[in-house]
Specification:
Largest sheet: 16 strands, antiparallel, barrel
Structural class: mainly beta
Number of strands: 18
Distance between the termini: 37 Å
Number of helices: 5
Order of helices and strands: HEEEEEEEHHHEEEEEEEEEEHE
Strand order of the largest sheet: 1-3-4-6-7-8-9-10-11-12-13-14-15-16-17-18
Radius of gyration: 22 Å
Shape: globular
Strand content: over 45%
Helix content: 10-25%
Length: 378
């Protein structure tokens, strides 16, 4: 008994010493909603489902920081997707090496980096968000809600593997985050800052194949803000590349009204097969996002948003989304919400319907989706 008490005391002393020098936090978001969507079959049938991550993507993570002295800190962040509607964790992002169970899901698919920060800014090494998602994320009309069908998440931030999977370090799947990357973010100077990021393709004999290179600039005063980013990514054969730029701004025009706007465009150059077409050479995808937040009280916020997505250069396509979103904050950690989305494609053809990002079922040119859910952060 005495030995047990002594061992516990020693461990406690070590823990106290460690906690005085560093901190580790477990955090996350659990979000679930009941969703009803019309026109999911050729005869107009509806679909009812329970979906995770409708207001914000469900996730969990571990982050920590150690004070090294002189203003220098060592930091890390590991973060993975949670599918709390089925109880699974992690997500595949393409290019994964299958593990011993035959599962190519990555536990920390969202973030996985270590780095240093100080008066010079911050440097992180590992799997990082691309600079484009930081730019449009600052001013996205619905604050990145409905991530799986949000044009700014799927197109502006390159999350759609079907459209962008051939480019960048992941070598398939989502390009929103890049493996094997180094990211630098500058300190703010009078509200202005910048960032640089490079991802290694790691192909023997060709140092630029499957790489990512990006830069961005931004401004924030704590309430209002603006950001602009540019990136270039190559395919594994180094036969094609994709360039993209994304920008956004938000401005509080009244104590209870915030306006938001974004624009992003990607362009493919070179012979590469991505979807059903023989080549995606010349393909452009452009997204316009506009929105406004109306704060009715400290707890209640209403949002109206519009997205226009167009494809050109190889084939023409277009789709629009009109979204109304209401949020009620029970506390700083728990929010109830309801949304109504109307999606309209240019036609029933695949090049139009695909731009609606799964909201519209095959054989239809429009659909309505209703979601009611709750989010809890920890």
């Amino acid at each position: 008994m005495k030995k047990t008490i002594l061992a516990f005391a020693v461990l406690s002393a070590f823990a106290a010493t460690a906690s005085a020098q560093s901190s580790v936090t477990i955090y996350g978001i659990i979000d679930a909603a009941v969703v009803a969507t019309t026109n999911q079959t050729a005869t107009g049938g509806s679909k009812f489902s329970m979906d995770a991550g409708q207001l914000l993507t469900s996730r969990w993570g571990i982050k920590g920081s150690e004070d090294l002295g002189g203003g220098l800190k060592a930091n890390f962040n590991l973060e993975g997707t949670l599918a709390n509607d089925t109880g699974t964790a992690g997500a595949g992002f393409g290019g994964n090496v299958f593990n011993q169970t035959g599962n190519n899901t990555s536990l920390f698919d969202r973030l996985s980096w270590v780095g240093l920060s100080g008066d010079f800014g911050s440097v992180t090494l590992g799997r990082n968000n691309i600079l484009g998602v930081d730019s449009v994320g600052l001013a996205d009309p619905i604050s990145l809600a409905h991530a799986g069908s949000n044009p700014n998440v799927m197109f502006s931030a390159l999350n759609s593997g079907a459209f962008f999977g051939g480019f960048g370090t992941n070598q398939g799947g989502s390009a929103l985050r890049q493996n094997n990357s180094i990211k630098y973010v500058s300190p703010l100077m009078s509200g202005f800052g910048g960032a640089l990021m490079y991802g290694f393709g790691e192909k023997a004999g060709d140092s630029t194949a499957s790489n990512y290179a990006g830069l961005s600039g931004f401004f924030t005063d704590g309430t209002n803000g603006a950001a602009l980013s540019y990136a270039k990514m190559k395919d594994n054969a180094n036969a094609a590349f994709m360039t993209g730029f994304a920008g956004g701004a938000k401005f509080k025009v009244a104590p209870s009204v915030m306006l938001r706007g974004t624009y992003a465009q990607t362009k493919v150059d070179g012979n590469i097969k991505i979807d059903a077409l023989p080549s995606a050479n010349g393909r452009k995808i452009a997204v316009i996002g506009l929105g406004a937040d109306f704060s009715l009280s400290d707890q209640t916020t209403l949002t109206a948003a519009y997205y226009n997505t167009k494809r050109s250069g190889d084939i023409d396509g277009k789709a629009d989304q009109y979204i109304g979103l209401a949020k009620y904050a029970f506390s700083k950690r728990t929010t109830a919400y309801a949304s109504l989305t109307y999606a309209k494609a240019g036609s029933v053809n695949a090049q139009d319907v695909s731009l609606a990002l799964g909201i519209i079922g095959a054989g239809n040119s429009s659909a309505m989706r209703t979601a009611v859910g709750v989010l809890h952060a920890f």
